[in-house]
Amino acid sequence: MKGGRHLEVRLGNVETSAGARHVFAAVAKAETDITLLIQHSLAVVGQSEAAEVSAFTDGCSGLRSLLAAAGVTTQPYLDWFHIAMRLQHAKQMADALLTDTAVALADLERQGQRRAQDAGLPSVVDGFA
Which candidate, 61, 59, 57, places its Cα nearest to that of 89? Predict the structure, then answer.
């Protein structure tokens, strides 16, 4: 948005398998240290050094470094919603490629038939009749 307002918020949710939960959020361009918020949220739900932490993400490239700075070193997982979005984009691209390929092949076949007719040769389709 040129000249308009733009607000980026970093939002997280820390949960345990027992159901303890802590939500945090911060405006990205504010002076809030997001790594401290992550560490604090982990402490609030009782995360210990021995506990395995799994992170889920929307695919943001900067999340790995934020998590590593907060002490979470395991690779984050892409959440199901964003996996589905990426698959939908891939499907749309594949559909477009298939459509473009079919159109290109039909055009190539028409051009070949025209050239064969211009040269006085039977077309491939005529040869099978």
Answer: 59
Burial classification of residue 101, based on how many CB atoms lie within 10 Å of its CB (0-12 exposed, 13-18 middle, 19 or more buried) = exposed
Q: Is residue 84 a contact partner of residue 72, using CB atoms and an 8 Å limit?
A: no
Find out whether 19 and 38 touch, Cβ atoms under 8 Å: no
Q: Where are the domains of the chain?
A: 9-78, 81-119
Cβ neighbours for 58, distance < 8 A, ≥ 6 positions apart = 78, 79, 82
pLDDT digits (tens, 9 = 90+) for 51-89: 778 888 877 778 888 888 888 888 888 888 878 888 888
Report the C-alpha gap between 44 and 26 in whole angstroms: 17
Residues whose CB falls within 8 Å of the CB of residue 26, separated by 6 or more in sequence, listed in order: 9, 10, 32, 34, 37
- Cα(112)–Cα(6) distance, rounded to whole angstroms? 54
Instruction: Please state the pTM of the whole predicted model.
Output: 0.55
